[in-house]
Design goal:
Layout: H1 2-31, E1 41-47, E2 67-74, H2 78-108, H3 116-132, H4 137-198, H5 204-221, E3 224-227, E4 233-237, E5 240-244, E6 247-248, E7 251-254, E8 268-271, H6 284-292, H7 303-326, E9 341-343, H8 349-352, E10 353-355, H9 376-382, H10 391-431, H11 435-468
Antiparallel strand pairs: 1-2, 3-4, 4-5, 5-6, 7-8, 9-10
Length: about 475
């Protein structure tokens, strides 16, 4: 009988310990309900089987041997985690490209009467005003003002595009450095988790930290994650391992640090150990690289460099077409072969464009020998803005293409963000903490604790009766 009592006492104690563990885990869940990346935990309780019996008089194991805490498990989902990381990588890429294209649109300010297209229209109209008032100085002075404003706008737009390219290149360097830092932390956590898990310790807090880092790596670089049997993870980008066990590789940014230099030395990302370039298709880093790509002859290069190329083309076309007519005319002072625009022999065309005339007498308006009241050359130049090959048409085509690309990128970013939100919600529904549920669990564990405590109290009373209130054997 004493054996049964002591066994029952041990059973009650196991229930007390299990309830205590449940209360502690539930308390952790409640305390971390707002912690980013936290995955709710649950006590893994298992029934304790009866002792094995052997021999001819062996009896089958009896029920009610108690409960044991097998461990604390996280209620996460490998599939939902992978979906959330993939959606985050896609949203990271489209978000960067949409932001970059929107910034370019804001820089150009099209369509607007004060933007380059509006200034072009005013520039051609000024030439028509000159042709309508041949010999008058005021319209020519106004023309010079409009021309100077147009040249300044083209140069300002180009410098803004240059600045955006440089900022994007800095963003690439920052994102790459963050990838290296996060990868090193994941490798370190891999070692800690493997060591503690091997010794039977609780690694859930470390796993939560690692999960947060893995989400960040996916958003930055489109990283893929594989869970290993020893509770470490292998992280790969571009088909090559970034983190394996406790070893983390690093990335380095290559290429020119200027937009003009990127034409021959494009921005890229390589392995720091010299293994070659890294091919990325999603994530923030891939988005930055797409924006930084050099312009191409087909016009399908990086958005920033393509916009700069269109500004250079506009400046070159404007100078060539206007000068081609201007040199055939004569100024009010009788000078011939006079160009209207100047172009620097070095540097970007958008920054090298200038107005050569400093006063009305330096502008070719009339045809040679036609007299002071002729405005045919000015009229011919004014008509350049409406021709099929005019600078305006080429510029408008580029602006429309940028607007279309921006609209598509913005729409894609919105879709990717929605997909990311859906994936995150699905992940949260499985992994996040519900305070209502945890409060119910807390009440259940408290009652279980109280019940086990009462059983122990009852058994203690029985044992007290047996030990202290039963007659002593051997006295007479």
């Amino acid at each position: 009988m004493s054996g049964n009592l002591l066994g029952s006492l041990n059973t009650a104690f196991s229930g007390l310990a299990a309830a205590q563990a449940g209360i502690e885990v539930t308390g952790d869940n409640i305390a971390n309900s707002t912690t980013p990346g936290y995955v709710r935990q649950q006590v893994d309780l298992q029934a304790v089987g009866g002792p094995a019996q052997v021999g001819p008089f062996a009896q089958p194991p009896t029920a009610g041997q108690g409960v044991r805490v097998a461990g604390v498990i996280q209620l996460g989902s490998v599939l939902l985690d992978a979906q959330a990381r993939s959606a985050g990588a896609a949203a990271g890429y489209s978000g960067v490209t949409a932001s970059g294209l929107s910034a370019l649109e804001s820089t150009l300010g099209e369509p607007n009467g004060d933007a380059i297209s509006g200034s072009l229209s005013k520039f051609w109209s000024a030439w028509q005003d000159v042709s309508n008032q041949p010999g008058a100085a005021a319209p020519v002075a106004a023309l010079l003002g409009k021309a100077g404003s147009l040249v300044g706008q083209i140069a300002t737009a180009y410098r803004s595009v240059q600045s955006q390219w440089s900022q994007t290149q800095q963003d690439l360097a920052t994102a790459t450095a963050q990838v290296n830092s996060d990868a090193a932390k994941v490798a370190q956590l891999n070692g800690q988790i493997r060591s503690i898990a091997a010794s039977g310790g609780d690694v859930n807090a470390l796993v939560t930290q690692r999960s947060t880092l893995l989400s960040g790596l996916a958003s930055l670089s489109g990283a893929a994650v594989v869970n290993n049997a020893d509770q470490t993870v292998t992280v790969s980008i571009g088909g090559a391992n970034l983190v394996q066990g406790t070893v983390a590789r690093s990335l380095t940014v290559t290429g020119s640090t200027t937009m003009e230099g990127a034409a021959t030395s494009p921005a890229g990302v390589q392995w720091s150990d010299g293994a070659g370039p890294v091919t990325l298709s999603s994530g923030t880093v891939a988005g930055d690289l797409a924006l930084l790509a050099p312009a191409t002859a087909a016009g399908n290069g990086g958005a920033i460099a393509e916009t700069a190329a269109k500004l250079n083309t506009l400046a070159t076309s404007l100078a060539q077409q206007v000068n081609a007519v201007s040199v055939t005319g004569t100024t009010s002072s009788g000078a011939t072969n006079v160009a209207f625009f100047g172009m620097s022999a070095t540097g970007p065309a958008a920054l090298g464009l200038s107005v050569l005339a400093t006063d009305p007498s330096g502008v070719a308006v009339a045809a040679p020998g036609a007299g002071a009241v002729d405005g045919s050359i000015a009229d011919a130049i004014g008509r350049l803005g409406v021709g099929a090959g005019s600078p305006d048409v080429a510029w408008a085509t580029g602006v429309i293409a940028l607007g279309t690309a921006t609209s598509n990128a913005t729409q894609q970013s919105t879709l990717d963000q929605s997909a990311q939100a859906a994936a995150t919600n699905a992940q949260s529904s499985q992994e996040s903490v519900s305070l209502d549920e945890e409060n119910m669990n807390l009440i259940a564990y408290q009652h279980a604790y109280q019940g086990s405590a009462r059983v122990m109290t009852a058994l203690d009373s029985v044992l007290d009766q047996l030990i202290n209130h039963t007659g002593l054997v051997g006295l007479g």
